Amino acid sequence: MKPQDVLKEKSSLWIFGYGSLVWKPDFAYKGRKVGHIKGYKRRFWHGDDFYRGDKEKPGRVVTLVEDQEACTWGVAYEVTGSQAEDSLQYLNMREVVLGGYMMETVEFIPKEKGQCPVLALVYIATSDNPIYLGPAPHGEIAAQIALCRGSTGLNIEYLVRLAEFMRLHCPDVEDEHLFSIEAAALNIFSRLW
């Protein structure tokens, strides 16, 4: 679905973030809600050769992988009017052009009781992307993250901020993939520096 098609259908829309968007959306929005989507698990399987890595040492960032039993926690941002157009232009450059992500529509379920689910746009990197790295043992992913740096900073900062978000906003959710990679990467990082 193209951004202009999304905008024709609604005066406002929701955008779901599950990686760096949870702490750094970099676009104006009307409101934000913590919550989750079902049918996907978050994995550090996507390469990043710009923001958190480079061409010689690509970093690892998260993408979503279909899994009917899973859910992924994050933040949905409501954007309206010109915010919607501006945010989609920004995200399409950041996620699609530079990152190789595609856009999907998902049902977002807010954490706060009594709030209705909303349809949200989400960006997902797939295995047919040239910088998709795919699965690897947690220790290998952690070592790669501990060593990489890109134009916006250290790859480990991305990992730690995502883990901090989960601990602060979703303290009852156990994200084994995220937390085991964080523990291993911090161990490696502390020995290097």
Automatic annotation (TrEMBL):
GO terms for biological process: glutathione catabolic process. SUPFAM superfamilies: Gamma-glutamyl cyclotransferase-like (SSF110857). Keywords: Lyase. It catalyses: glutathione = L-cysteinylglycine + 5-oxo-L-proline. It comes from the Eukaryota. Pfam families: ChaC. GO terms for cellular component: cytoplasm. The keyword Lyase applies. GO terms for molecular function: gamma-glutamylcyclotransferase activity; glutathione specific gamma-glutamylcyclotransferase activity. Its EC number is 4.3.2.7. InterPro entries: ChaC, GGCT-like, GGCT-like_sf. It is an enzyme of class 4 (lyase). Catalyzes the cleavage of glutathione into 5-oxo-L-proline and a Cys-Gly dipeptide. Acts specifically on glutathione, but not on other gamma-glutamyl peptides. PANTHER family: CATION TRANSPORT PROTEIN CHAC-RELATED, GLUTATHIONE-SPECIFIC GAMMA-GLUTAMYLCYCLOTRANSFERASE 1. Belongs to the gamma-glutamylcyclotransferase family. ChaC subfamily. This is Gamma-glutamylcyclotransferase. It comes from Betta splendens. The lineage of its organism: Eukaryota, Metazoa, Chordata, Craniata, Vertebrata.
